[in-house]
Each structure stands twice: as C-alpha cells, then as structure tokens.
Amino acid sequence: MAVIAARETSGSGEVAVRAGVSSLLVGLFVIALAQATGPAMRPPLYDGVFPVDAYKWLSPPPGEHGDPTSDMATVQVKGERSPLLAIGTKELPPQAQLFGPPGALVLPSGTTEIRMSVAPIPAASSPTDGHIEGNVYRITVADQNGQPLAAQASALVSVVLRGPGNLAEATVERFVNGSWQPLKTTPAGIGSTFIAVVTDFGDFTLVAPGAAPSYAASGSPAGGSASAPASSPSQSPGPEASPPPASATAGDRTPLIVGLAVGAGLLAGAAVWFVTGRARNRG
Amino acid sequence: MLRPVLLTAGLLLAVAVRWVAVASDARDGVEIGLAFGIALLGVAFVGSQRVALTRTSSVAIGVAGGGVLVGLALLARATGPVIALRPALDFLPWALATILVATAEELVLRGVLLDALARVGGVTMAVVLTSVLFALIHVPLYGWHVVPLDLGVGLWLAGLRLVSGGVAAPAIAHTLADLATWWL
What we know:
The complex is a heterodimer of chains A (283) and B (184).
Chain A: H1 13-37, E1 71-76, E2 85-88, E3 96-100, E4 105-106, E5 113-121, E6 131-143, E7 150-151, E8 158-162, E9 171-176, E10 179-182, E11 185-187, E12 193-197, E13 202-208, H2 214-219, H3 246-250, H4 254-282
Antiparallel strand pairs in A: 1-5, 2-3, 3-8, 4-7, 5-6, 6-13, 8-12, 9-10, 9-13, 11-12
Chain B: H1 2-23, H2 29-47, H3 56-77, H4 91-121, H5 123-136, H6 139-142, H7 147-164, H8 168-179
Helix pairs in contact in B: 1-2, 1-4, 2-4, 3-7, 3-8, 4-5, 4-8, 5-7, 7-8
C-alpha cells in the first residue's frame, strides 16, 4: 500500500505539515466530543463492509423472508453481581439484541444463574402512535426459578432492534398493561437499527409513524406479526410461504465472493501500477 | 474548478448506487463493497494527475494513526454496550473487500480530490470539504447521527495525509480501523 502514496501537491513543506497537525488535533477533539456526547451505540469504528440479511418476518408478507431466529442463554452468577448480558438473534445484524454490563441487574439473594431469551412472537395489539415495523420480540431475563429480573436504570441495559428496509425513524416500544409504550430511542448506527435503554423486560417492537407500508400491510394489519397465528416462532412461517433465507445462500456464494475479492485486489494493484507508471512517464 | 466537481460527482454517484443496492437487498454486503471499491478506484484513476512517491515513514504514520482510531473506539466501548456486527463470512473475502473500500475511499478523498480542491481553494478548504464529504457519504448507510464522528475521523485522516505527504498513511489508518471491527 505504501506504493500508492501520492506526491504532496496540496501545499508543500512546513505549511502542509502545520495544516496537517492542526487537522489532526481538531479531528481528535471532534472524535472525542462525538464519542462523549453521541448515541450510546454506534458502528464499531466509522465504516466497514457488513452483510445485511434481508429482514425475516414471523408472518412474512408476500415476497418477504420468513423464519426469524431466536436465542437463549444461561449465565452463572458469581458473587452478588450479575455478569455481562449479551444475547441476540442470529440474523446479520441481529434483529433483536439485549446488552447489559456486569452488575446491571437487581439480583435477589440466592440467585445462582440468569436465564435470558429473545424470540419473535405475534403482536397482541397495534400501537396507537404508528405501525409496527418488523416483528415483536419477547425478551425475558429471569433467575433460576423463573422469577423475572429487573435492571438498574443507571446500568444502561439496552434493547437493540433492527427493522425491515431502510427506516429513517422509529421508536422502540414496550408492551405494558395492554398497550404499547414508547421508550427513549436513538439510532444504533447501522441502517434501521434502533436502541433503547430499559429497566424491565417483556415484549418490544419498533414503531414507525404513519400508516403501515404496503409490504407490511399486506402481511399484517399491524404491519408486522399481528395476524400471525398464536404459535411458537418455529411454527409460524412455512417454507412454501417464504423464499429461502438470505443466509442460506450467502454461504454458497463464498467461492464466488473470494474470487471477486481476489480479482478486485489484482485490479486495484494494476490500476495503481498503471496510474503511477503513466504519471512517471509524464514527469 | 471543473475537476473537483467531476470527482465529487463521481464519488456521490458511486455512493448513490451502493445505497440503492443495499436498500434493494439485491446483493450481500461484500459484493456491494467490492463493486463500490472498484467504482471508487475508477474515479481515482480517471482523476489522477500526479505520480506517487513511496515514503517509508508513511507506513509508520498510518499504523500509528490507525492505532489511535482503534484506541478511541476501545475507549468508547468501555463506557457502554456494543452492537454485534461481526460478519458471519470467511475473514478473507470480508477483509479484502474492506481493504479495497477503505483504500479506494482514501485514494479519492484524501488523494485526488484533496489535491484538486487544494489547487482551487487552498489546503484548509480542501481538508474541510473532503472531511464533510467523508461524513456525508456514510449517511445513507448509517444515518445522520454518525456525521460528527465521521467528520472528526475525516479531519484526522486528512491530517495524516498532510503530515505524511501522501495518501498511504490515511489509507493504512483507515484500513486498520475498519479491519479492527472484525474483533471489536
């Protein structure tokens, strides 16, 4: 990569270096400020190449994908602090995730383990402030006896939900006492992914303003899984009702992708060699 | 004046095509990344005017610059939860696509475009405009809230470009920071 270093043409010598140092310092300050005041969650750094699975619906509208995944985990409690909590569905990026730092949960004495699960479920009702985008997810956190656990507000336990398509705006809502309650929501960095800090667990979904789009409306009056039969997630979408999951085909294309990547690398090298050679001849 | 405008138009066109491809779920992220990287290489190739110089120090500056970005990200992670983003693909194709995209972005932004803008309006304007562009091209995929962070990173990478005297340093730093997402 060193051979692609371009000759300094944007100012020379000391002036350019001074401008560069200033840019470095200002950049560092802006990065620190953005990280200190920005959303709690964001892309890991600032860019990257991430495969994004097509959204998987519990009750897929025509032409959409089905078979959303679930996850469950059990972690042991050592001492009186809860361990790191991290659970998420298997899509890329996950369609539902739960994160909690160590010590986040309020643990009754005698708690020896924490059982977590996240699974798509049919929606019990539609929200009044918009429409459901995607699935409703039931997130449970309980002790070894099945008693629900709660989190401390200061612990920043977070629910992250990804919606279908490119959602510009959505709110994470929790189903409480028969209705959907909005939570303070911030975008989580990757398209259509949103995060909310929670203290209690239960049923969560993304709610977008306005009427449901056609693809969602055709699949469910609530825009999501409301019309799905009340059944376990594994029963809801039949294979005939949805195309193959994206992840099933991604692995099959790996040799092609490797070939393309190697070809692209060779092409990049050839381009650099050609550009530098052309300029050298010109000089 | 025409050259930076055309370069910017080429960059934005590539970004728009990538966004449409992502939104349509037509291909997976690696394929789209490869196509995007190749398109940017085309822009850099068409817009190139000057010969490259190899500077050994650029590698060290780039590695140090990338290390700072990774360190800042680690620092931010220590204070809050993280999103699981590790791709479920083989490392090699993902890494090659990431290297290609990061390098191509640097060739265009901190390479040919920064030079072209500097000739028209000076170094400061070039640094500011390329940094703003760098932030804006990430908006379609990540949303507006990433603008402050990416603006800062753009300024940081532009600083590496000016201090090192070449585009190799920001390309290395950018690549290292992106590759670090595999483990972070």
